[in-house]
Structures are given as structure tokens and as C-alpha cells.
Amino acid sequence: MKAIAVQNLTKRFGSFTAVDDISFEVDKGEIFGFLGANGAGKTTAMRMLCGLSFPTSGHAQVAGFDLSRESEKIKQSIGYMSQKFSLYEDLTIRENVRFFGGIYGLSNAEIKSQAEVLARNLQLEDKVDTLVKSLPLGWKQKLSFSVAMIHRPQIVFLDEPTGGVDPITRRDFWTMIYDAAHQGTTVFVTTHYMDEAEYCNRVSIMVDGRIDALGSPDELKKEYSSKDMEGVFLQLARKAKRGD
Amino acid sequence: MKAVSVNAVSKSFKQEKSAIEALKEISFDVNRGELFGLIGPDGAGKTTLFRILTTLMLADKGSAEVDGFDVVSQFKEIRKRIGYMPGRFSLYQDLTVEENLAFFATLFNTSIEENYELVKDIYVQIEKFKTRKAGALSGGMKQKLALSCALIHKPSVLFLDEPTTGVDTVSRKEFWELLRNLQKQNITILVSTPYMDEASLCDRVALIQEGKILDIDSPAGITHKFGKPLWAVRSRDMYNVMIQLRQMDEVASCYPFGQEHHLVFKNEDARAIVGARLKEAGHTDVSFARIEAGIEDCFMDLMKAEKV
């Protein structure tokens, strides 16, 4: 079974087709880069896959559940980290873990053990009872990711997780992504950093609501005769007809 | 006279128990007509510095001048001659594109017609939407409108706070071309960005992290100072190669950079040993190539030096 299987997914807002008949599959444990220029339709597509927005037409299975009939089950099986920091700043690390763990239906014992694992992995053991707002920015980002993974979801959706982050933290963050994928979690990630596209197993590039390219970074570089992913992206994004 | 001159500026923000030092005795100058980049991650202090220079906030210590005027005693003079595009979109969402531009022109006793030449290149790209409300514009168009509004009174110094954050690479490239053209019209531009690759597009840059300036120089000057042989490592199994390299004593640092890892040896003679050890571990296709350091290599190196 695929982690994500999308067939002819379309979303229209009035006369505007935000997502235009896209089809693709994502394997289990894969790091899948979901790229596109601003306004290409990435966020709309991602919101549908998370069960937050209904498609106008088409089908999709996410974590084995049908998008139109079982969106609540999808929500329980996925983790989501938004572009904007969305943990509670005026709660401590432990309280945030307790809150989000509770929302995902973890038992008290599970929450307790997960909080310990999380603090150990992030080397924040002495900080579990400090307010999240007093943490340095780089740590907040890593903490958000760990909280999105608190219920051990099958798939985690990351919406520009590294925007504005310092270069060392950005790399630490990708190490965490790799580790999660090695443990079998499927990672679906958007980014504006083209060097990060190279870290994905496969990448899709959206242009005007369509997926115009899909493949491993090496395949795409060969196909578009480019030395790096930035070159591939520029060739495709410049074809866009609709303004962002 | 410098366009901008900052002398030992400090600023802290009090929290319940502690204080956050947003700027720690920052000093630098920006020359007239220069395109000067303030490069650093979120939380480095870029916005605080911009607010002090645009006279919207007072420094705790130190002094600063913009266009020859003191930011405290002569703030009114400064406000007349600078343009400021904040990081957050702050035009009037319920006014149209044209109304916004006319409003900002009027504030400075001028008109769109009078300074049209200056904004023409940018404004033509959104002019066909001039009757649309600003709130209904896409991100890229909002950005162009905000830049037009910051320029319409022909400022001598332009402050752009993270104009390209969250913007895709195509639009980023276009935006920097616009800045280059503006520079030709004798406007000094101070621009901040978290994207290290944009540093090379500036005349000079200040690398900033946690309220401190790590270095100030031309982009080439900064990369020239890296001072250590840097190697690009490639292999099929990039992830495991990185993990092994990081565990080796001979390796000073190893960071992923897209399709390669950037590696510094503690001792150059160790390359053969390291290569052999990787081969032993089954990585038979590892290649090493000498490369020049980029701004991001330098930034990480300086960050680590700060921490020691």
C-alpha cells in the first residue's frame, strides 16, 4: 500500500482552478519534496491531503484512508507542521506535549514516556519545564517537528519547516527528517530552498495547478539538463502563465 | 558623509524574568549609493535594527545617523527622506492598489505623476490591477505594491526588511534585479534577508546572529577569509556517508549542501585515510573535489567560532 495515492485531484474556487487534475503516489518511508512557485497550488493541494479542504473532483488515499469518506481517520494518522510556529508559547515544553498528546488520544503513560523521549532526543532535558516562548528560535522549530510526530503518525506534512532558520539548525532539522524517514515515517515537505530539494528521494514541481515534473533529483537534473535543482525549478517555474 | 552610520547600538527587551538582548553593541556604516545586505536568521535582531534606524524605536545605548541626521534628535528629518518596507505587509488592505500609492504620495506632498519614473519598472507589473483592493492581491503583487509605496516620495535611503522571505526562487531573482536598477538611481538600499545565497547580490554585507555582527565585508571579502581547504564530497549514499564522516576524528566539520557535503579536515593529510575508511565501509563511489567556500560556509564557521 502506498502512503499517499492521488488520482485526478482537482480543486476549483469559482472559475479559478487552484489544483488542476493532479495524480501521483508517495511510497512509505519516502521523503517527498512538494515544490512549486508561490501560487502554484501547493498549499491548496496539501490542505486537501490533510483532510482540511474537500476536493472538487478526483480521489486520494492518505495513510490508506479515503479522502472524501474518511477524513477524520486521516487526521489521526498524520502529523502536520505549519509554516507559522503553532505551539503554545505560554505553556512549557511538557505542557505542550501533554496538550497535543491528549488531542491525539495518547494515554497518560504514553504522554509521559513520549515527553521523556522527546526531551532526550532534543537534548532539552533540563528545559522541559520552561516556557516555550523563552526557547531560542532554532529549538522551537525542532520542538514543533517533534510535537508533530508525538503520536507516531504514518505521514508527516511539513510546510516550509526551515524558513528563516539559521544554516546550522536548518541542517540539524534535515537530519531529524532523515531519521524519521529511516524509521519508516513518510515525509511530505515543501521548501523554497533548492538545496533541500536535493535531500528528497523524489520531488514534484507544480506549475499553474498541475504537476509538471516528478522524479528523483538525479532524474530531473538529467531530464532538464541542469547541474542542480535550482536550474530545474527555474526552467519549470518560468513557464507559469498565471501570476502568483 | 555616510548614508547610514551605526555606533555601538544596544537594545534589550524585558520579559517576565529575564531580558532578551536583541542587539549587542552593533556598529557599521553604509556608504552612499550602496546596496547593503543584513544577512541572518530569524531572531538575529534585523527587524529591531531597522526599527531603530527608521526612528520607530529607541535604542537603549549607542547612537545612529541616517542621511546625516540623528535618529533621536532629528527623527522628523529622517522620516521625510527614507522609504521603509516592513517585513509584514502593512498597506491598507481595503484601499485599491492605486489608492494606496496615491495615499503614500500625498503623505509626502508629492504625486504619482511627479515620481512615476522611479516606480515605473515595478508599478507597470501591477498597474493592470490598479482598481483591485490591496488585500485581494497575491503575495508577489503585494510585495511590488509595498515597494512602490516605499519609493513614491523618492527617498534617499530605502530600508527593506526581509522583502523576499517566503518568496520562491524565480520571484526572488526578479526582485533583486529590481533592486539593482533602483541602485542606479542613486538610492542607498539597506536590505535584510535570511537567505544566505542573496548575499552575493549585495555590494557589502553584515552577517548577523543573536544580536551580534559576525563580519562585515564584500561577499568576496567574506568568502576569501574562510581560510581552510574546503572539499565537496559526493556519493550515492549521502546520508550514511555524512554520518560516518561526522564520527571520524580527522574531520573538523561536515555539512550537507544539496547534492554534496562540504567537508573540512583537521589535517589535510588525513584525506587518504578517510577515503580508505569509507571504502572499507562499503562506500566505493565517494569523490572529493576542492571547492571555494560560499557565504553559508562562512556563516556557519563564524557561528561556531562565536559559540566556543
Summed up, the helix count of chain A is 9
Helical fraction of chain A equals: 25-40%
CATH topology of the largest domain in chain B, by name, is Rossmann fold
- How big a fraction of the residues of chain B is strand? 25-35%
Q: At CATH's second level, what is the architecture of the largest domain in chain B?
A: 3-Layer(aba) Sandwich
Unreliable stretches of chain A (pLDDT < 50, length at least 5) are none
- The CATH architecture designation of one domain in chain A is 3-Layer(aba) Sandwich
Q: What is the terminal-to-terminal distance of chain B?
A: 37 Å
Taking the sheet with the most strands of chain B, its summary is:
6 strands, mixed
CATH class of one domain in chain A: Alpha Beta
Coarse morphology of chain B: globular
Integer-rounded radius of gyration of chain A: 18 Å
Oligomer: heterodimer
Order of helices and strands of chain A: EEEHEEHEHHHEHEHEEHH
Task: Please report the first level of CATH classification, the CATH class of the largest domain in chain B.
Answer: Alpha Beta
- Number of distinct helices of chain B: 10
Task: Give an account of the 3D structure.
The complex is a heterodimer of chains A (244) and B (308). Chain A has a domain at 4-86 and 153-237: P-loop containing nucleotide triphosphate hydrolases (Rossmann fold, 3-Layer(aba) Sandwich), CATH 3.40.50.300. In chain A, 36% of the residues lie in helices and 25% in strands. Chain A has nine helices and ten strands. Chain A has a six-stranded mixed sheet. In chain A, strand 9 (202-207) and strand 10 (210-215) form a beta hairpin. In chain A, helix 3 (93-103) packs across helix 4. The mean pLDDT of chain A is 93. With 308 residues, chain B is α/β, with parallel strands linked by helices. Chain B has two domains: 4-219, 3-Layer(aba) Sandwich (Rossmann fold); 230-292, Alpha-Beta Plaits (2-Layer Sandwich), CATH 3.30.70. In chain B, 33% of the residues lie in helices and 28% in strands. Chain B is built from ten helices and 14 strands. Chain B has helices spanning 46-53, 75-81, 97-107, 116-123, 139-151, 169-183, 219-224, 238-247, 271-280, 295-307; strands at residues 4-14, 19-30, 35-39, 61-66, 69-70, 82-85, 157-161, 188-193, 204-209, 212-217, 230-234, 251-257, 260-265, 287-291. In chain B, a hairpin with a 4-residue loop joins strand 1 and strand 2. In chain B, helix 3 (97-107) runs parallel beside helix 5. Classes of the chains: A alpha/beta (244), B alpha/beta (308). The A-B interface holds A 36-39, 83, 133-134, 136-138, 160, 163-169, 171, 174, 178, 182, 192, 194-199, 217, 228-230, 233-234, 237-238, 240, 243-244 and B 15, 18, 40-44, 138-141, 162, 165-171, 173, 194, 196, 209, 239, 255-259, 296, 299-300, 303-304.
